[in-house]
C-alpha cells in the first residue's frame, strides 16, 4: 500500500507549517542542539489552578462519560452567559455548540456549508489552517491581501471587490494571527455595511484571541457591532489562548440554529462531544472570571517590548507593536540578497527563517506560510530569560550576514 491509495481530497491539503517547524525543532533538539522555539502559537503560562481543579473534580465525581454532542447543559449556559456578559450577544441553547477546539468548529462549519465552486474570502495574512480547511471542503479559498500600511486590516472596498455570487463565507480573525491586528468598532461597521449588501454571504468571526489585547476595551465582534448580520455570523471562541488551555481542546461557537445543528450532526458522526473533563473545566473558566488576565497582559507587554526592541534595532528588520495576540509580524524584506557566513544568499523569508533556525537556533515562521511573503512571525509567549537569549541569538545571526 502506498500514497496512491489516498483520497484525492488529501492532495489539496498541505501539512500545517507550524507542525513542520515543530518537527524540525524536535529533530534539532534530539541531536543535542538547544533551540529556542518562537514558532509555537501558545502561551507558556500554566492553566489557572481553579480551572485545573474543576477538571480534577470532574474526574473524581465521575463526570467521565459521553455527554450531549454539543456540550453539557452547564457548559452551554456558561457559554451563553459569556456571550451575553462580554459581547452583549444573546444566543439560545440551540444556537451554541462546544467542540474539541475552535479548530474543529471552524472545520465543521466549513465542511457543512461549502460545496465545490463555492468561494471563501480569506484576508491575508491568515491563520495557516483556513485555506486548507476550505480546500478540504472542496471550496475555493479566495485570498485577499491586506497591507502593512493599512495595519494589516481588510478594507471595505477590497472586501466589496472580492465578493462574487459564489462567495459563501468571509473569515474575519481579530485579534489576528499572525499580525496581532484588532478591528475597531468603526472598522467593523464599515465592513458590515458591505456585508449587508450581500445576503448570501456568511461571516466567520474567529475571536479566539479576544482576551489577548494590549489596549483596554479595544476588542469588538461583528455580531455585537451589527446585530442585523447576527443571523449570518458564526462567532467562534474558545479557552485555548485566553485561559492557556491549548491541550484541553475546548472551543465554542454561537450562530444561527440551522448552522449549529448542521455542525452538531457532523460532530455526532465524527468526534462526538468534547472531553467531559475539559467541559467541566471550561465551565469554571467561563464562570469564575479571569482576573489573572491583567497579570498575563503585563507580562506579555514586557515580552512584546523585548522583541520589538530587538527587531527594530536590526538592519533589515522592522515591525509595529501589534495591539493583540502574542506575535510580532516583522518585515524582513531587507534581508533579501544578504549572504550568510557559509556563502548562501538569502532570497526569501523562508531562507531567512531557515537561517535563523540553523545558525541562530531560533525557530520562527516565515510570513509566506500565512500568505504574506517577506515577513516573519515571531511568537513571544515564552519565558523572559529565554526570550532575551533568543533576541541575542537573532541579533548575532543577523550581524553575521553580509
Ligand atoms: C486564529 C486561530 N483560530 C483558531 C485556532 C484554534 O484554536 P483551538 O486551540 O481552540 O483549536 C488558532 C490556534 O492557533 C488560531 O490561531
From TrEMBL:
Residues 33-394 form the Aminotransferase class I/classII large domain. It comes from the Bacteria. GO terms for molecular function: transaminase activity. Its cofactor is pyridoxal 5'-phosphate. Keywords: Aminotransferase, Pyridoxal phosphate, Transferase. This is Aminotransferase class I/II-fold pyridoxal phosphate-dependent enzyme.
